[in-house]
Design brief:
There is one protein chain. By secondary structure, the chain is of the alpha/beta class. The chain has a domain of 106 residues: Beta Polymerase, domain 2. It is 12% helix and 22% strand. It is built from two helices and seven strands. The strands form two sheets. A five-stranded mixed sheet has the order 1-2-5-4-3. The longest helix is centred in the last third of the chain and has 11 residues. The N and C termini lie far apart (81 Å). This is NADH-quinone oxidoreductase subunit C. It comes from Iamia majanohamensis. It is a peripheral membrane protein. Belongs to the complex I 30 kDa subunit family.
């Protein structure tokens, strides 16, 4: 019986430490607890990764949304060496051939919340990007019409940011006896 602590000899193969999932088009990858593959491109990599995935059969961009992690102490699963930022852009792509789904999570800095638009790769993202801009204030460089889509044009602020002051405007609901 060989000694488990002995160093490998010429005829033995050293066991390699298990490595994480392979990067997808240069973007590091994690797998969430449910087995969902998540690629983590940088803002600069985003369009190239989405274009390459489209060419591999991920023909539909199902969703573009964002998360504001302000004051969120819960740990996030990020690739080693990737720093968490306040905002996270989440892109969901699907391929109908197998079917397959992949999530892209892009860390977006609070100081400069700008990412490139996916409009040239997936034209259907036009309204989704406008909604993210409207609600979170993340700007999409190269978007053909980056204007508000849900809030009035003169609205100040971005309502889904966690530091947005709530309760500033009284709302009268149907059936309420009187304004509050």
């Amino acid at each position: 019986m060989a000694d488990a602590d002995a160093a490998p000899t010429d005829g033995d193969e050293a066991e390699e430490a298990p490595s994480g999932p392979e990067p997808i088009h240069g973007a590091p990858v994690t797998v969430d607890p449910r087995g969902q593959v998540v690629a983590h491109p940088t803002p600069d990599q985003l369009v190239d990764v989405v274009r390459a995935l489209r060419d591999e059969g991920f023909l539909m961009c199902l969703d573009v949304t964002a998360v504001d992690h302000l004051a969120n102490a819960a740990p996030r699963t990020l690739p080693e060496g990737m720093a968490p930022e306040r905002f996270e852009l989440v892109v969901v792509l699907i391929a109908h051939d197998e079917p397959r789904r992949i999530l892209l999570k892009v860390q977006v800095p609070e100081a400069d919340p700008v990412v490139p638009s996916l409009f040239e790769v997936h034209p259907g993202t036009e309204a989704l990007e406008r909604e993210v801009f409207d609600m979170f204030g993340i700007r999409f460089d190269g978007h053909p019409d980056l204007t508000r889509i849900l809030m009035p044009e003169d609205w100040e602020g971005h309502p889904l940011r966690k530091d947005y002051a709530v309760g500033r405007i009284p709302v009268q609901f149907k059936g309420d006896p009187a304004p509050r």
